[in-house]
Amino acid sequence: MYLRSYRLNNYRRLQDVHVELDSDISIFVGANNSGKTSATQAIQMFLSGSKERFSLYDFSARTWKILNALGQADPSNDHRALMPSISLDLWLEVRANDLYLVIPILPSSAWEGTQVGIRIEFATANAQLLLQKFREKRQEGLDRVAALPNGAGRYVPWPKNLTDYLEKELHREFEFKYSV
Fold this sequence. Notes:
There is one protein chain. The protein has helices at 36-48, 61-72, 99-102, 127-146, 162-173, and strands at 2-11, 14-20, 86-93, 115-124, 174-179. The protein contains 5 helices and 5 strands, in the order E-E-H-H-E-H-E-H-H-E. 34% of the residues lie in helices and 23% in strands. The protein is elongated. A 5-stranded antiparallel beta sheet has the order 2-1-3-4-5. By secondary structure, it is of the alpha+beta class.
């Protein structure tokens, strides 16, 4: 059994990357800042099983815009909010003599393929609840500023936006999700 390919979504500069690997050896070649390190580091981060290794800065810049738009959107639509996540799809080539290694994760014993796909996703536990908590914290900050006798000047209380909130609360709000 070996890792045949993987797909990485929303990780740093890599919005949607598919990498095919050889069964023997694969070498990443490319210009500086083209994503070689990120493409390999992502696998290590996901397989560590530690969500504390992730930070908001591991999300692609495109997702930051989406997150902030969700934070500014009408709360009545929160139940439909699609929160961005970072995902890694691993495709394993499974030979007949290695089948015993993947049987526990197969959805059915009728499987007759040669590849098994596993998705690991760093995603929000509950998007609606996350948005609710963000809005409550935001309102608390605005209320404190409003209560100041001379106002706050140009000071903007924490959290300024949803990414500001997640920069501090990411590990409480996001978790690993697995699927085959």
